[in-house]
Amino acid sequence: MNDLEVYKKAISVLSRGENIALITVISTTGSTPGKVGYKMLVWGKNGETIGTVGGGLTEANVINIAKKILPKMENQVVKFNLNGTENDEKGICGGSIEFLIETFDKKSLPLFKELSAVIENGVWGALVSIIRPNKAPEKIFLSSIEKLDTVANIHFSPEVTASIKELVAKERPAKKTLKDGVEIFVETIAEQPMVFIFGAGHLSYHISRYAQSVNFRVTVCDDRVEFANKNRFPDASNIIVEGYERIFDKIDINKSSYIVIVTQGHKSDEIVLERAVKTNAKYIGMIGSKRKTLTILKKLHEKGIPIRTLERVYSPIGISIGAFTPEEISLSIVCELIKIRRLGDTPETNHMRITLSEELQEGN
Question: How many C-beta neighbours within 10 Å does residue 110 have?
Fold first, then answer.
């Protein structure tokens, strides 16, 4: 479950004239099942929910609190210590977790529409929550840090403005308590990276679904309209049907982009890879056995592409999980994308890239 699904449900419920309660994990200490930034929406007489803030009895308790305040427009901060024993259900993680519970009515519909649009478009933003217990929720969306200076003159004191800038700079959900007891919680909405999937076959279908479920945007590229179409990829940001030699002239690849090459044949893989390695994409991965990959890399090296450039390529693609079915192989590929996104290109990624320089030396 991602924030976009939570916000879209909020739009749906608010549009019907019903109130919602938004529960957000705003701080943790030690080990906890819910992490800072986790969200859950609660609505209706029976306390329907979407999302999660960690599960278990703690989540059940915070849902009950949210149900009680749903008719009101206020926020509450509740904290649970998870230091129970094996014989109770309090939780034995040993840490503590703090939740912000906010209730909204139809007047907040524009805010949730803006948040949804920002996430869908993959652009940067920051959501600022000003927490004054038992007061109406104060949430302000910033499309840029420059916008804060404009908003500050109307809404915030210099101390609050400085604190928001400090928290935004952390680029992760974070909270700060001010001298007067007011708390500020800032969530940065990171720019969603684009995954360019070259090939629209069975693997691509599953890669697209998995990638979008973990907050990547997807562009599908293929020269076959019967495969690359909205019926097969209804949620893709873009679908480009064009010869592989010309597709790169129609797309914008930057240092945040991910390239996944899973076309229908070795020849088209080579065409795409030759163009891909000349970009500054964050990740370039190509499907194939070690023999196939080495053959293509050697051919590209003979065309004058430096070894260091070619060794950027992740191939065999995906992390090693013993994948066999198209679904499993696709999952291993998306897991690698997540690993690169979160850890970067470090020894900890433990990928399966070929070291071309060593292979060339062995061939001499």
Answer: 12
